[in-house]
Amino acid sequence: MSRITIINGPNLNLLGIREKSIYGDQDFTTFLAALRDAYPAVALSYFQSNHEGAIIDKIHEVGFATEGIILNAGAYTHTSLAIADAIAAVTAPVVEVHISNVYARESYRHHSYLAKNCKGVICGFGLDGYRLALESLLTR
C-alpha cells in the first residue's frame, strides 16, 4: 500500500467557507473522504496548519517515511525559504498544489520559493489538483 501525505497550509481549513469564487464551496473533509474512497489502495494521511513551523515539522516527520507529499503551503509558497529548505532536506517527492491559478492572480503570487525543490507544480484545477498530484506520485 502506498503512503501519501497531504499537507495544507494557512487558511485552507476554511475551504468551502472562504472566498468561494476562488476556492470553491466544498470543504476539504468531504473532498478528502471522496479521494480516499477513490484510492482505497493508498494510505492517505492529512495535516493542516496555519503555522509555518508546524508545516516544517510535519515535512520532517513524514518526509523519510512516505512515498510522497502533496503540499499546498498557501501563502507560505511565496514567502517561506524555511519550507523550501525542509522540502530539499527530505527524500519523499513533493508535489506543490494550488487550488486557484496563482498566475492569474496578484503578481506576488507568481513566484514560488518551493517549486525548485518539488517534483512538479499543479495549479488552477480546483480541488482536483490534489487528485492529479496523487496520480503523479503513484506513477513515478
UniProtKB/TrEMBL annotation:
This is 3-dehydroquinate dehydratase. It comes from Parapedobacter luteus. GO terms for molecular function: 3-dehydroquinate dehydratase activity. The keyword Lyase applies. It catalyses: 3-dehydroquinate = 3-dehydroshikimate + H2O. HAMAP family: AroQ. Its EC number is 4.2.1.10. The keyword Amino-acid biosynthesis applies. It is an enzyme of class 4 (lyase). Keywords: Amino-acid biosynthesis, Aromatic amino acid biosynthesis, Lyase.
